[in-house]
Amino acid sequence: MDTKRINEFGIGDFIEGYYLIRSVDSKTSSNNKSFMDFNLADKTGEINAKLWDSNKEDEETLKNNMLIKVRGNVTEWQGKPQLKILRIRPIDDMDMVSIDDYVPTAPIESETMFKDIMEYVEKIDNMSIKNIVTTILDEEKEKLLYYPAAKSNHHAMKGGLLYHILTMLRAGEALGMIYTHLNKDLIYAGVILHDIAKLEEMDSSELGIVSEYTKEGQLLGHIIQGIKRIDKVAKDIGADEESSLLLQHMVLSHHYEPEFGSPKKPLIPEGEMLHYLDIIDSRMFDMNKALENVSPEGFSDKIWTLDNRKIYKANI
Amino acid sequence: MDTKRINEFGIGDFIEGYYLIRSVDSKTSSNNKSFMDFNLADKTGEINAKLWDSNKEDEETLKNNMLIKVRGNVTEWQGKPQLKILRIRPIDDMDMVSIDDYVPTAPIESETMFKDIMEYVEKIDNMSIKNIVTTILDEEKEKLLYYPAAKSNHHAMKGGLLYHILTMLRAGEALGMIYTHLNKDLIYAGVILHDIAKLEEMDSSELGIVSEYTKEGQLLGHIIQGIKRIDKVAKDIGADEESSLLLQHMVLSHHYEPEFGSPKKPLIPEGEMLHYLDIIDSRMFDMNKALENVSPEGFSDKIWTLDNRKIYKANI
Amino acid sequence: MDTKRINEFGIGDFIEGYYLIRSVDSKTSSNNKSFMDFNLADKTGEINAKLWDSNKEDEETLKNNMLIKVRGNVTEWQGKPQLKILRIRPIDDMDMVSIDDYVPTAPIESETMFKDIMEYVEKIDNMSIKNIVTTILDEEKEKLLYYPAAKSNHHAMKGGLLYHILTMLRAGEALGMIYTHLNKDLIYAGVILHDIAKLEEMDSSELGIVSEYTKEGQLLGHIIQGIKRIDKVAKDIGADEESSLLLQHMVLSHHYEPEFGSPKKPLIPEGEMLHYLDIIDSRMFDMNKALENVSPEGFSDKIWTLDNRKIYKANI
Amino acid sequence: MDTKRINEFGIGDFIEGYYLIRSVDSKTSSNNKSFMDFNLADKTGEINAKLWDSNKEDEETLKNNMLIKVRGNVTEWQGKPQLKILRIRPIDDMDMVSIDDYVPTAPIESETMFKDIMEYVEKIDNMSIKNIVTTILDEEKEKLLYYPAAKSNHHAMKGGLLYHILTMLRAGEALGMIYTHLNKDLIYAGVILHDIAKLEEMDSSELGIVSEYTKEGQLLGHIIQGIKRIDKVAKDIGADEESSLLLQHMVLSHHYEPEFGSPKKPLIPEGEMLHYLDIIDSRMFDMNKALENVSPEGFSDKIWTLDNRKIYKANI
Amino acid sequence: MDTKRINEFGIGDFIEGYYLIRSVDSKTSSNNKSFMDFNLADKTGEINAKLWDSNKEDEETLKNNMLIKVRGNVTEWQGKPQLKILRIRPIDDMDMVSIDDYVPTAPIESETMFKDIMEYVEKIDNMSIKNIVTTILDEEKEKLLYYPAAKSNHHAMKGGLLYHILTMLRAGEALGMIYTHLNKDLIYAGVILHDIAKLEEMDSSELGIVSEYTKEGQLLGHIIQGIKRIDKVAKDIGADEESSLLLQHMVLSHHYEPEFGSPKKPLIPEGEMLHYLDIIDSRMFDMNKALENVSPEGFSDKIWTLDNRKIYKANI
Amino acid sequence: MDTKRINEFGIGDFIEGYYLIRSVDSKTSSNNKSFMDFNLADKTGEINAKLWDSNKEDEETLKNNMLIKVRGNVTEWQGKPQLKILRIRPIDDMDMVSIDDYVPTAPIESETMFKDIMEYVEKIDNMSIKNIVTTILDEEKEKLLYYPAAKSNHHAMKGGLLYHILTMLRAGEALGMIYTHLNKDLIYAGVILHDIAKLEEMDSSELGIVSEYTKEGQLLGHIIQGIKRIDKVAKDIGADEESSLLLQHMVLSHHYEPEFGSPKKPLIPEGEMLHYLDIIDSRMFDMNKALENVSPEGFSDKIWTLDNRKIYKANI
């Protein structure tokens, strides 16, 4: 069976295929009957789906982040497509589908990215800096392999944080050859650590899907958490104070503007560069994604993360 | 001899008395002669002073934060009074003047204030919170006894930080009786800790005069340093995580606006109250000071810390 | 019969009880039949309710701000609960329910609050100030007994304005003992008069529910109206000009920022304090209310009047 | 004798002529001698002047706003011209110079302007509005004949307020013929009254020179004072409330932006037009003045009242 | 037959009459049937309309900007009126209705306005300026006769751009008689050219209805396009450089603020005046329109183009 | 003779050496004598210098941008060093000093940079884009060889614009290998053209020193001038419209924010990247320069072009 991609659904289509339950709620309709309200997803998009007259068993079986097989009709509700579910069940081994095909995932395998990042760590000469980075990467490796870089913005995908780090490292290395006064140790360590406390700020499933922010994330945020982490590790391993201070300052200042969370602007060139590496990588990601389905000489929708710009697809 | 107060100097006056050297520089004039450039102070104000044709011995003897006896004439230079020094020497024991009469000092004795603050600590019920506060106060008592609350703004005086804390505690206690849903433990601990890392942010002499900010102060700032301090002490003494988190959040948010250094706004009522206790205490201090020498129905000069307002002295 | 509280309604519940009609509209459905669209309320919340196939008599009987008895089923419509009305009628004397149980009301009885406020007036020494305040309170007593302090923000409840004033007076008295340079006459009078022209700015029913702003409210606003009122009363009773000017300035500046309606910032310490008394009282009210139904370690919804912050319920 | 105009002074010139003392201070030099520090003015500009070794008689004779005869040399001090005074004395009747030649004055005679304005008043049909305007103009005629429209910005000249009003009336009349839905009564009355309380906000000498703002001006400002004035006059003469309300709203909103003193924006078209009449008249005045001494294809200095723009003199 | 005006529709009315299709979409309902979704309009407003169970022929016949005859019932859907279509067909010649009665149109005939504008061109003395203007008007006459001045804001009507230009010319002429230092050639040419590249920025139908912005409009905008146009025409006809530069500067600066598209503020008085002529004309238009259906002492809805103000209808 | 570098001057030093006259004015002192006021410079800094009792010959001989030999004493004036000139004369051939040693100059020879840039042009595949760039570079080569990139900010040095372009090209090439979806033709052309109209905006001497902005620069600015230039060249050589439009959009948007001169933000990824290449290159230049004379663990002065940050010299 050839599962139709969600971004190809047309009103009136009959659908049979495998999809991911991004979220599910059990509700009661105005005529007092139970129904289930789904968001189904594949890599190409999402669709709302309804299972009318659901029963207890459905409610106990069908859960978030589960792959299911479904049959139904695509209808329209308030200007948007909606799937009216005829049959739905969890997959079993016979179905031979893999979760990796159903969640957005970084284009490089996580273990490979982790290894590549470790090679950059190897290039760090300053032992205090190197040890701080190594210690933290060791402690966080497991989560890093699946965490996204954000809940819904750029790099919101499985392995997204690793991918964001790795691309920034490559860009930092390239610019370091042009702006040779920059200290590469600070650049590499700053890139690796700048968002490391997103692992504490957000709760992510192993699919790289973030359900919510943690209370620490909301009361302090990943910048503050990251600074505390570096401070603690540096003291624990006896790193020199200047190195620790510089890394903390880079994390503190990497959002650049107070209203985006950085009470201090970068006061060292490596902090300035870190900010631009970060913003370039997220902007390139978002713009590239915005143009995916746009025809030449056409404009994308307004993209919230790009200040509501409509991005233009050049025709040259 | 009755030393004339600086705010009473008139152009043309002959002056003989004791003053404090707030700062001193050795310079060379356009006709290539050595002279010394002073800022002399007493509790009522400051005046620029010049010692023309100074010699090596003067330069080696006369230093910052030293009490001196001086004779001279008050002249005018570019619209401002300036003291032309005739004679100047350091005080000796015979002069029987005390440094405390020459630097702005909190109106309550430091040890008394410290004791009063400890009484508030005694009222804290939550043992984690109480222990965090007690530990930090113990470690910092020595510096607290003389540190000001700022380099040049409100409470820039010897013992100013203690005085700021104590007044806020008293106000917090009073408002806590009216807004009874507030947790007094958080209020008292938040007040005591909110500016505690100013001790690390600024370098202060024992006269309560700040010469400069530390590199940690400039690269991280007292809010971040305070959070790290609480985090470390809490972990060291095994305080519960929720209490530590709440105190860190209160410190983080007490400046309220991102552009003033708080990347998060208060998310608990006690944090909100801490912010207002802080701002009320500084504003009352500054306004009171602004009106010191203003006549009824008159206006003060523009006060920088009060958004350049000219404060009005009511006549009722 | 035990009337169920609205914040306890569950989808599917059968309801029978007494509620308040906050608003009601008669409408026609897409199949051209008449129906009535209600917002029903008790002290715990509001719910939308529909009476399908309504008739002329229903439309003539059921009006805003009326108490009714209703039977119906709780259904769900677009993610929110909705009451499908089976029977509805106005209450009669037999029902023995009181309107005061159905509208949000200040926690202290209005006459008591008014009396308490008058005791503060008694403490005012300056006769000009005292007479201005007394005159205005006399003229406005009737409306003050039920007016809320706002249409939909803080203290939007019957007697809310009195409650806001009284709490601020108590806080002002407490802080006046700590900041002793403040003139208590100005503080007390400023607190009492700061929002007095809200009585002219808004049209309120005797339930303390504001339907709309008056044209004077929209074209001038309560700050300007309040100043004119003080000016007129002061001239009528021959108050001294300085006192009148100071009170007008306090009213003018109490919103502090131009974009919130104050073209001048406070230029006297009592005006500065008035602003903070006002903002503290509204923030404490809103935060307290936001946390009413939040579990420990949970967050409230985004609160519009608190800059869309989600308030956290501490767990200590 | 042909008095040289100040804007024609060259460094090194010997000067003998009549000028106005805009301000004068008695000071003491660093070598402890008395001197007097003047700003001398004619219609073309101002120059700083020093009388060294002044005596008591000089200090008692030479006062602000007095015409004097002076001899001296033009020198340079810190990049600016300065007059070194050789002789100076007040004028006497023999000198036959008139103060009107020494202060900036509106280009139309004040009595003529007042009469022209009264002709616009005659065109007002609504009797309430007409009476309010007539009453206030009657009460203020004396001051209006010499008051400027500002302390140092546009129309800071004798009769400047009348000139500003008259030009705006003419522009309002012209635009009223194009935008025929506008009510001319409101336009004429709004123009006449919009700045009327500048007479209370500023202290002006009869030369149209403002020395300072009044305490009412600083604590309330001319917008608030103007509203109170209209309110009072309207009540005194029994004008209808709607007319009074509209005029007050126009005065309140004519600065348009909260940060410029208007807490409400215009909500009627006549208020909107009043704002633009006001701003056009002040901008045309300032730009015209900025270009007075600029050569074609040249730029003026930065003009503070024009957002520091340098205005360009077109060459066509 | 007397066609009912859309702003007079009541819920439950039966309607038969002629309207304009502003937009139409073919959709599929949740029960999988085809229907068509219209916005119908006349000069008084718009209404959503549904044709249920539509067929292929309907979809091929009924298009945007077409006049139709329709029968139906006015129902209510989510608080707004909606027309349930019973019959619908395109008009034919027998219907004797004219498109001009169905689209908002300037109150003066386009050819007349164009002729009036050419009379202003005749008054321009500077031949370079006159030739630039004449050349561009010649090239654009055809589009000018129907283009609106905006997609959805002020003067969004057939011939709206001409009407905007003509009214501004009349106002500019009137103010030029009062502010006589202004160069009328620049004023007239600036007014005519300031929005000329809106013809390139937007795609308008001959009904004056703009469907979308062009790619040049989005990537550069009408200010930049207008400057390029003037530059090119000036070079082609050999106009003098100063004249061309001044006109380009006026177009560049006429939006006044960077955030509204003008990177430079006006540096010549004629540019300053152009800005105010433009803004006055659009504000008067919008305010007048806002008050069309408001009763005395009532307020309009919030008007987006007027900063969400509710405009007040004075009652004098 | 070993000429002392200006940044090594000490108060009291006797100086003899070669320096550049950055600016010179002839003035008259308060005792009516002629003197000359210089700013002398070498590559390390500037110093104010005075030649007292100057004569006509001095004034006719000594001009801006001239190399001179000077003898004098370093004194102090108002806290800053000042050179009191004893003797001064223009250099002659015997002095064997080269102007290149006295003006800040790019670290690569201009012809070499130009050739390197042409190699990037060779890599452009799109012939329209390549031809536009080639044409403009050909026309501007002469000026490009010495123009700075700014009057006083980053890259204000001889050949600074070429150096800025070349470094950005290298960075753009490096990042293009990482962000492979970018069109390198647009990147290279955008970098080369983004500031090209600075050649029209500023008047530069052949030393790369800008005396002032042109009238076109002030009335339109280099962004608008650059767009017009591209537009004209593209039309002249028959380039395709899309290419020309994209380049114009990139120039228009490269300052990113309206308040910095870009009314549109980048709507294509290459425009986004151009902005960051530009800002990174200027920031790295300014930070590097700021740290030139700072000791480890020290801070620079406040740098205006870096938002008044004090940059920190890391000590690792």
Low-confidence stretches of chain A: none
The tally of helices of chain A reads: 10
Q: What oligomerization state is this entry in?
A: homohexamer
Strand content of the residues of chain A, in percent? 15-25%
Backbone shape of chain A: elongated
Please, what is the average pLDDT of chain A? Answer: 92
Question: Can you write the helix and strand succession of chain A as a string?
Answer: EEEHEEHHHHHEEHHHHEE
Largest protein-protein interface: A-F, 46 and 46 residues
Strand order of the largest sheet of chain A: 1-2-3-5-4
Rounded to the nearest angstrom, the distance between the terminal CA atoms of chain A is 39 Å
Largest sheet of chain A: 5 strands, mixed, barrel
Helix content of chain A: 25-40%
- Computed over alpha carbons, the radius of gyration of chain A is 23 Å
What's the count of strands of chain A? 9
What structural class should be given to the helix and strand makeup of chain A? alpha+beta
Please provide a brief summary of the model.
Chain A has helices at residues 56-61, 110-122, 127-144, 160-178, 184-193, 198-201, 215-219, 222-237, 241-253, 269-290; strands spanning 14-28, 34-42, 45-52, 67-77, 80-90, 202-204, 210-213, 299-303, 309-312. The first copy, chain A, is of the alpha+beta class.
